[in-house]
Amino acid sequence: MGDDELDTNATASNTLADAFTSTNRAEESALSSWAGPYVTDMLGRGQALAQTPYTQYGGPLTAGESTLQSQAYGGLGSLYAPTTQMGAYAPTSFTEAGVAQNYMSPYMQMAVEPQIAEAQRQAEIKRVQQASRLGKAGAYGGGRQAIMESELDRNLLRNVADIYGTGVEKAYTQGMGQFNKEETARKQAQEMLNKYGFDVFAAQRRAGAEQRGIESEGIAADYAQFKEERDYPYKQIQYQQSLLEGLPVGVQSYEYSEPSGLSSLLAGAQGGTDIYTLLNNIFNPED
């Protein structure tokens, strides 16, 4: 028998063996033996720690309002904004009925009327002096006295008219000036009243925003605490999972054989089923 015939027989033998068996290769990871005790102890401690109940914080989560803030908010809350008095300034006119008279009368009473009274007193003094001279001259009660008294009355009326005219002019000028000053003051008072009301509103609005911020801070802290307690079990699982990361493991490879399809076919034939039926079941399973 030649070498070629031997190689052919060996190849046929191997092919036949492969037909009856199937060889597979697999790998398996396992913890390195040198780290086993340490890792086992560590995982045990980690598991015990992960099973520790959640420790809840019992103190305040936010600072809240301070005493001074509470006092300030209370004071701002009690401030009154005069909304019924706030509004646009409505000016009046000096020429409206009775307005000028009201502002002129004080000056007329204090300045003009005393001047008129003094002019009348001086005229009366002159009248007495004239009567005395006429009596000494023996002309009292005569025509000369009548002319002198008529002239005295005319001068008095002219003097009173001058005083009154000048006084009315000054009274009007000073009355208008006083009116304008008071109108300006009333306008400024209205503007200050409006500003005060708006300042109250602005201060209360800022205080309300601060209180809202403090309240929101408390709500956010409570919600964060709720999420922390809710997520605690999940974090413990993640903690346990992290203990398994980076462990020293080794890879082992091994091979194993399984019966091939032909081997199963022959086994079925030995059980009484003919090869044709077995092949038909393999290639035509629906039949």
Provide a descriptive summary of the structure in words:
Helix 2 (36-50) packs antiparallel against helix 5 (143-243) and helix 4 (99-137) runs antiparallel to helix 5 (143-243). A two-stranded antiparallel ribbon has the order 1-2. The model has no long low-confidence stretch (mean pLDDT 77). The two termini are 48 Å apart. It is mainly alpha-helical and 287 residues long. It has a domain at 67-243. The longest helix has 101 residues, at 143-243. It has helices at residues 3-20, 36-50, 67-78, 99-137, 143-243, 261-270, 275-283; strands at residues 21-31, 249-259.
Show unreliable segments: none
SSE string, helices as H and strands as E: HEHHHHEHH
Largest sheet composition: 2 strands, antiparallel
Percent of sequence in beta strands: 5-15%
Q: How many beta-strand elements?
A: 2
Number of helices: 7
Computed over alpha carbons, the radius of gyration is 62 Å
Helicity range: over 70%
Quote the average pLDDT.
77
What spatial order of strands do you see in the largest sheet? 1-2
| Shape designation | rod-shaped
Classify the secondary structure makeup into a structural class. Answer: mainly alpha
Query: Could you tell me how far the N terminus lies from the C terminus, measured between alpha carbons in angstroms?
Result: 48 Å
